[in-house]
Design brief:
By secondary structure, the chain is mostly helical. 51% of the residues lie in helices and 6% in strands. β2 and β3 form a beta hairpin. The N and C termini lie far apart (60 Å).
Length: 152
């Protein structure tokens, strides 16, 4: 297969050319040359971009992804880092399940108003304290439980 110009790579990978240039600056991809002013890439860059996209979807930073990509284009994936990310995702899934269950309870609560629902009141107190029921970016999150706040 022949080299691909930046527009073709952008189209096939579904990322803007500016992202390709940024990835190049970060050392994640490299052009093989230029044709006029347009960067040219080896077709294997598409697989590398797919690996970057997969890493981003899993929550890895670009720096973490860069450590998983050898300069020769071959992945050198740290299995311990993958296991740690999987554990982190498990915790996030548990936290989101608690939040989902809490929202469902609040939506279906038979109390006349949310202000009268003991479970909803506990959710509010937990949110105010930065606890598990409602994740907050600036507050610590309590980990390790799967029950909605206020339920055993």
């Amino acid at each position: 297969m022949t080299e691909l110009d930046i527009a073709e790579v952008s189209h096939r990978a579904g990322v803007p050319a500016s992202t390709l240039r940024f990835y190049e600056e970060k050392g994640l991809i490299a052009p093989v040359g230029r044709r006029g002013l347009r960067r040219q890439y080896h077709p294997a860059v598409l697989e590398r971009l797919a690996l970057i996209a997969l890493g981003r979807t899993a929550g890895f930073s670009l720096d973490e992804i860069a450590r998983m990509l050898a300069p020769d284009g071959q992945p050198r994936i740290d299995r311990q880092m993958l296991a740690a990310k999987a554990d982190e995702l498990d915790r996030t899934i548990q936290e989101l399940a608690v939040l989902r269950d809490s929202l469902r309870h609040a939506a279906a609560c038979p109390a006349p108003s949310h202000a009268e629902c003991p479970t909803f009141r506990r959710l509010l107190r937990a949110a105010a304290a930065g606890a598990k029921g409602v994740p907050r970016k600036s507050a610590p999150v309590r980990r390790g439980t799967t029950a909605p706040v206020g339920h055993p």
